[in-house]
Amino acid sequence: IFLMQVPAIQQKRTVAFLNQFVVHTVQFLNRFSTVCEEKLSALSLRIQQIETTLNILDAKLSSIPGLEDVKFEVSSANVNSVTNGPVAQAAADQQTAVSPQSGQNNTQEEGLQKTEAITENVTTVAKDPRYARYLKMVQVGVPVMAIRNKMISEGLNPDLLE
């Protein structure tokens, strides 16, 4: 094909296609941003409702006399799953680090003594007064997500509830 014989592309047509593309893209982005704003607004409203409900529940719980002295008992099976951070891992490592060269009974006794000594020094979430009211909320039946949001707003780690 000899390029000198090919007619030029019509500039009006190219500009029309480009304008149509820009208009459709802008309309799509406007609709998308409107939908996103509506969803964020609805989510914000829902969060405010949850915070209000949580504050009301918090006020109701604090109005009940005697809740300050409530003690939580945790079975020994749950102690390791509720402990804070690497202390539980250190306890497990020390349990498995008992030397196999000594007698079977001696090894088990040493492991039990170390475990008991470590669990006495471990601060569990159940014993922490900052988390006591959240554990009480779980027992009362407050939704876990609401409790997690309240803990986050107060700067506490919500993963420790589990």
UniProtKB/TrEMBL annotation:
This is WASH complex subunit 3. GO terms for biological process: actin filament polymerization; exocytosis. Keywords: Coiled coil. Gene3D superfamilies: 1.20.5.110. The keyword Endoplasmic reticulum does not apply. Belongs to the CCDC53 family. It comes from Erpornis zantholeuca. InterPro entries: WASHC3 (IPR019309). The keyword Cell membrane does not apply. One of its GO terms (cellular component) is WASH complex.
